[in-house]
Amino acid sequence: MNCGTPSISVVIPAFNEEYYLPDTLQAVENSAALLRSRHHVMTEVIVVDNGSADDTAKVAGSFGARVIMEPEHNIARVRNRGAAAAQGEVLVFLDADTHIPEELLSCIHQAFTVPGCVGGAVDTEWRPKKRSIRAYLGLWRVLGRAAGMAQGATQFCLRDAFAPLGGYDESLFMGEDVDFYWRLRRHARHVEGHVRFIADLKVVPSCRRFDRWALWRTLIWTNPLVIAALRRARFVWRGWYDAPLR
Known about the structure:
alpha/beta, about 45% helix, eight-stranded mixed beta sheet
């Protein structure tokens, strides 16, 4: 990697995330400092403000992040907007309400020291308050790994791999992260490369939705069959993205 310019760009979509964003950005800052001290690799952080009505942009700026505006409520478009502004050779996509371990960026950097790596994803550890939801999400985590799926709480890839794929599919309003990872895997095979699923480190997404929702709502909105059938229907997912939650 070229250390003269930012070699890793962390892209964080954010909609009304002033409450969760500080912890996320502090964790990224700590991880970037460790990466810099170990490998002399520079990191830039881009927060894509998705039309927030709160102080999301102000919070991001206070941590030294570049703030990009994207008003369209489409998570794929928001991620693509951040990628277009990024300067790094490696793109890391991180949700604004997800906590990462300090070792994460170093581990991602190490993944690309293996010839042929084009990208990958990081395992997630869901910690909802309700035992029933914890068991349910744990089951899908196991099944998802068996099926080669990886969610978008933290995904990463080379810029040179992101461009040929056309980024995230902006016609999808749910499941765009799983779709991207599958296409990334196919691209890796096409170029005789590989993807890296990081399982020895885990990121911790917020469970605020699942903690507030009734069990039936979680079962429906996270059901892969429902997502597959309705993932292009914008109106179905408005309640997922448009309501700020704490």
